[in-house]
Amino acid sequence: MIVLVASAAGAWLLVDHLRGHGDARPLPWRDLTEQTGPLVLPRAITREFISRPQLGGYLRASKGASVPRIDFPVWRAVLITLGPRSSTAYSLRVLGVTEERDRVVVSVRRGNASLRHPGRPRLTFPYRLITIPTTHKTIHLRWIKPAA
């Protein structure tokens, strides 16, 4: 009996894995980074906000930051940060947002400093603030490797 239950569970896990997270469909999104102004974000995070007071409370910790207009609860805000970096060569770019069966996937690309493109030495805090339609699905970041 135990072997039968274990076999059934294993088969279900295999089917679920092969099926993946379901068909992905693009979701509309908007980048509000420029409307926010410079932020000092001391650690790398990904965080979602479902209300203006929640977002405003978080952004007020950075002096000079503005809270952009967002139509909560129709949209939710997603903040993606890299934490402190030592040069202006570091960047963060959102490539797209898709909705899968059980999650929302945000595809992002990080730009790094290199010997060819070191940037200017300065403490920076690369981030992106985007809005996506409100769903009850979890947000997953998919890091896309930079082109070689």
Q: How would you characterize the overall build of this protein?
A:
The model has no long low-confidence stretch (mean pLDDT 88). The chain has one domain (22-144). The chain has helices spanning 2-19, 33-36, 52-59, and strands at 25-26, 30-31, 46-49, 75-81, 85-87, 91-99, 103-111, 121-124, 127-133, 138-144. The strands form 3 sheets. The protein has a 4-stranded mixed beta sheet, with no helix packed on it. A 4-stranded antiparallel beta sheet has the order 2-9-4-3. The chain has 3 helices and 10 strands; from the N terminus they run αββαβαβββββββ. It starts with a helix and ends with a strand. A hairpin with a 3-residue loop joins strand 6 and strand 7 (103-111). It is globular, with a radius of gyration of 19 Å. It is an alpha+beta fold and 148 residues long. 20% of the residues lie in helices and 36% in strands.
